[in-house]
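Retro notes, structure queue

What went well: the backlog is down to a handful. What didn't: a couple of records were mislabeled last round, so from now on we paste the full input next to the output in the thread. Example, using Putative beta-lactamase HcpC from Psychrobacter pasteurii:
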Amino acid sequence: MWFLKAAQEENPVGELNLAMMYETGLGVEQDYEMAAAWYRQSAMKGEAQAQYNLGMLYDNGYGVELNATEAVSWYRKAAEQGMPDAQYNLAISYQEGEGVPKDIKQALKWYTQAAEQDYGKASYNLGTLYYNGDGVKQNYTKAKEWFQRSCEDEELEGCSIYLDLEGAGY
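Corresponding output:
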């Protein structure tokens, strides 16, 4: 009730919270279309979490038509505000060429920004780029550093099996 009242008052945080309730079905019947509508209201006001969540809906086709280009547009808005989840998803979009032309340099930029905020999956992907020399000069030392940093992220499971670069002679 209070989130609805705040949203009706055009409060971006209220709109975000109401959208999350609709997305998850918490306290209301799950409705992705309503979630998208409220995320959009909040996102248009600059709320980074709403921008990211709206991007996710477009990336998955929940409540909106599947649209990688639109997803990237929303990820970029949130990424530019420093949100590591959005930076990571934007990096993947550039690495895979989904919604944007494939651009490994842009992927590297956004992975780095997320990894510098201790976002483990971004650190791991950076390690992979350095290990393979994909878009950067191959550098096993940097690869190992990024792999090790990825292991500091408690959300990553099985991280301790990262490449043993010293054992491989690097």
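Agreed that this is the format going forward. Reviewer comment attached to the example: Residues 1-117 form a domain with the Serine Threonine Protein Phosphatase 5, Tetratricopeptide repeat fold (CATH 1.25.40.10).
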